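Researcher: Next entry in the queue.
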Amino acid sequence: MSGSITTDDLAQRIDDPARAPYILDVRANEAFERWQIEGKVKLDTLNIPYWTVIGELGDIVKQLPAHRDVVVVCAHGGSSGMISDMVDQANVHNLDGGMDAWANTLTPRTLFDDGTHFIIQLDRVAKACLSYAVGARGGAMAVIDPAADVERYLAVAEEMDSTITDVFDTHLHADHISLARELAAHTHSTYHISAGDAEGASYEFTALKDGEVFTFGEMEMIVRSVATPGHTPGSTSLEVHGRYLMTGDAVFVSGIGRPDLGGETIPWAKDLFATIHEKLAPLDPDLEVCPAHYTSRTESLEDGTLRRKLGDLLTNDPVVSMSDQNDFVEYVVSHLGEPPEIYDEIRKVNMGWIQPDPEMAKELEVGRNECALLE
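Model: Structure for this entry, 375 residues:
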């Protein structure tokens, strides 16, 4: 008899070669091409629309592995549940909630915990987005770049017996809807973003200031610069506990954020070059860069976290280490690709100019982020 699997469980298994399942995706081919389940392990995946599976069930079952778990996937979990029941094998599992649930799954991984203070990286695997919870048990807590699910951040606060007092966006996001204002309103906390990114927004915010210090227990978060521009004019980096540098989309663990989403490609590429060499390079090389996005789970460390020493990034990354501005700009311009048209709509939502209904919000969130350069 077939069973089911949660998206939380799947998020753990796709990084483990011994447990990675075979994926039977029964969505339409166009939906599959637009967005798939990906992990650190290269997943064996078969995409056959459910109506074809129904008509050719016997032949398709023969293609499925007999001694390995199979996860059946659709948009909402209904069609895949029906197919799982029809196959009716113990190793076949329906993905609860389908891709809708997968889109909002956040996997927490601990970066730092001394028993009092904690720094948690929350990985939105479906979109390769990263957010952070920083705080003290029994004290104050901050959330950086929240997305997908307000309840997950509230659960972290409850688990740590902490009170969310501050919510930060490192920049104006274009690939996904920020939950920062919603989370701040829910928790009666302060929403922070740079004035350079939120100028003209329809909502109130507290503008970040260069060198500003926030304290959570005895752990300090320092606004290292209100302008590490390039990806956006007001991109902001936050140094936490003298050990971690939350860089938003300025630099990733591999490569940089694309500078063309605001329509100023060459000027912003020059800004990003200056950011790397004038603002990031003078910092402690042992700081661990913790970005807001990544390209692939293969970039993760053995513990599953996404981070990289700043000095290593500045020295060894083929893009970040470029020393000539003209070469840098030429490389950036030649590796952009077309920005997704939908990103302009998402930016408007994050400026408060559009209030999406649930269906529009879901459609805007479909697909992985495309904030990095093409390889």
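Model: The chain has 14 helices and 18 strands.
Researcher: Noted, moving on.
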